[in-house]
Amino acid sequence: MEIEGTIKKILATELFVETPAEEISDHESLRDIYALDSLGFTELRVQCEDIFDVRISDEDFVPENFRTIAALTALIRRLQGGGT
User: pLDDT of 29-55, one tens digit each?
Assistant: First the structure.
């Protein structure tokens, strides 16, 4: 499963980011560029937990891990046991 592509699809279809999934960058700020707010980040957390079968603890639910798709992908890989 391609984590980055799945996150982009979540952003475009579930969180209604106005940028099409195929145009979302892995390295741009989810808050500043794609206008995710606190509710959006919470929903993204829940969606990622469900889809990738991981548990994102409160300690991992920090801005550094949700800053970009690349950062979130690294977190999910680590939680799945695959490293970064």
Answer: 999 999 999 999 999 999 999 999 999
| DSSP structure class, residue 21 | G
The reply to whether the predicted model has a pTM over 0.90 is: yes
d(CA 42, CA 23): 23
**Other C-beta atoms within 10 Å of 20: how many?**
9
Interior/surface letters 64-84, b for 16+ CB within 10 angstroms, e for the rest: ebbbbbbbbbbbbeebeeeee
Helix-helix angle 38-52:69-79, to 10 degrees: 40
The distance in angstroms from the start CA to the end CA of the chain is 15
